Amino acid sequence: MPQSQRDVKNRIGAVKNIQKIARALELVAAARLRRAEQRIEALRPYADAIRRMTRQAAEAAGNVPSLPILEEHEQVERVGLLLIAGDRGLAGAFNSNIVRAGVAAGREHEGQGHTALFFASGRRPATSLTFRGLDLVDSFTGFTDRPAYADARRIADRLMAAYVDNEVDQVEIFYNGYISPVSQVVRRETLLPLQQATVLDESEDREEDRQEPESDHHALVEYEPDPEEILKRLVPDYVEISIFRALLESTASEHGARMTAMRNASDNASDLIQTLTLEMNRARQAEITQEILEVVAGAEGLSG
């Protein structure tokens, strides 16, 4: 049934209002994205240095010191999975990608005879995990738009306590790594135990590390105090900075994904407005034609 001119006009008005909202959200996300990019650029060198120092200290120490946070559990029975996403939606597949990756990893561990325990940073992953009936141990919300180091420390303390108290035997984190406003990649990293951590994987070194001269890369490093003592101090910092970096990467990815999603929504609204305008013009033409036919029919009736 064809719509009247008034109905189409009302739909055009509704779509224009939605387009204004999408455009406003796009501008807000763009402004927040610039600040998030600056924070990532400032943190990455420090985070890379902490990772490199931790790896080098572990290599120099040889045997990992006997400390609860550094002890590798004999058997891996329970695996803690930290899913880092956002508090809000309207960001395309940003949140759902993390949830899917975490759930898939949980099934993978269960297939190996392990128990998957979930931790969530952000309301969206927390509600999604609860809706799926999965074992959500703890959640951290309310700061995904602008995370502070204190938020990372709170999450790190909870995960380290879970590891030390044998609540979990391994900890993995999932987050969206920021590449560009239109490109984010889901990253999965092993955080604890240190012996299995991604930080000890040489293939994870950044490009600038691989470009160092061979003589500098293998330069003799003297430790004071000994590497074991330094490692004890570095590991908590390594866990905190790794989580903080993941939070910042996730925040930038969220703003980029929301900016892109709202831009696409605005463009789609423009296309829909053009289609509805054409439909309204056709309806107007049909009404005018009908009026002309009625006038002609009336004139013919009077003349007859």
SSE succession: HEHEHEHEEHHH
- Strand percentage, roughly? 5-15%
How far from one another are the termini?
35 Å
Treating each run of at least 4 consecutive H or I residues as one helix, how many helices? 7
Please report the total strand number as a whole number.
Answer: 5
Q: Please tell me the total number of domains.
A: 1
Using the alpha-carbon principal axes, give the shape.
elongated
Q: Within the CATH hierarchy, at the fold level, what is the topology?
A: Pyruvate Kinase, Chain: A, domain 1
Q: Biggest sheet, strands in spatial order?
A: 3-2-1-4-5
Which stretches of 5+ consecutive residues score pLDDT under 50? 202-218
Notes on the protein architecture:
This protein has one domain (26-204, 215-259): 3-Layer(aba) Sandwich (Pyruvate Kinase, Chain: A, domain 1), CATH 3.40.1380. Helices cover 61% and strands 13% of the residues. It contains seven helices and five strands; from the N terminus they run H-E-H-E-H-E-H-E-E-H-H-H. The chain has a five-stranded mixed β-sheet with strand order 3-2-1-4-5, sandwiched between helices. Helix 2 (94-111) links the parallel strand 1 (78-84) and strand 2 (115-121). Helix 2 (94-111) packs across helix 3. The radius of gyration is 28 Å and the shape is elongated.
